[in-house]
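Structure ticket #2291
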Amino acid sequence: MAHLLVTGGAGFIGANFVRYWRAAHPDDTVDVLDLLTYAGNPANLDGLDGVDLVVGDIRNTALVEDLLESRSIDTLVHFAAESHVDRSISGPDAFIDTNVVGTHSLLKAARKVWLDAGGGRPHRFHHVSTDEVYGSLGPDDPAFSETTPYAPNSPYSASKAASDHLVRAYHHTYGLAVTTSNCSNNYGPYQFPEKLIPLFLINCLHGRPLPIYGDGMNVRDWLHVEDHCRGIERVLEAGRIGETYNIGGGQELPNMAVIDRICATVDVAFATNPDLASRFPDAPAAHGEPTASLKAFVTDRAGHDRRYAIDETKARDELGYGPERSFEDGLAQTLDWYLANEDWWRPLLAR
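Resolution: structure written out below.
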């Protein structure tokens, strides 16, 4: 029986992980620490039994120490992060505060409770990171592996790179039992509607423009969030202490292809479900018009990385990890979820 503390567990990936873990490991205890900033939503945890949400800041080292000690935490899974690149460009300070200072606060608390006071009792600090720390690939470059040199190009990716190095340092210097995973672009239920897939889905439903950066040919690897949760589970269960594992979706696609599939998926949904036209009368598909008519090109993002790709050989060979969802199936399931959970996302639009 494990006792988990999940930071950022009311956010998109964190909440999906909590839901996955509760279903797969019902005997374990799960506590969530989340500051409930704009992207943290307690509704993401609705309907879950045996999950205690503590509203607090990961930079509050004393609070983290108390949680680790009083709740006998032996596994800390660290999702809490500022993660939107556009926000990091316009306001980088919050990314340094949360992603660097916050991660260091967690590491200090873990070291004090698990090593200094705990006598080296069994524990795990798992740090969730991103493929963006590796920088940008050319069209013919090999995919990112765990040995790819770091070359972050945005304040967001630089802050995550710094946190990755801190986690590594606490293992090699102090002996903290850590693992790190670097994932590709996640999508799925409960994603705050500022990221590409939920933003564009909701814009399609409301007849709003679909803003496409540059030429739309920036390439990303797409990972369904439940596959990501499975990957983290495998790292926790079988990952080697001190190691890093890349978790990818095996779906390398240019943004334009993703946008075209979103539009086509929405068109099919409206064609097969006449009720959608009355629910979303402003959607082009409600009037038999192609959703793709909403596409609009805008000025490219500053420093926009051209291509990311994940080589997941290490996770596959050592952990038996492999993504189970195709992008087509995952996207259709995601659209179905957003259509069935309008009461979840509509209040978020006001934010």
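Closing remark: The mean pLDDT is 96.
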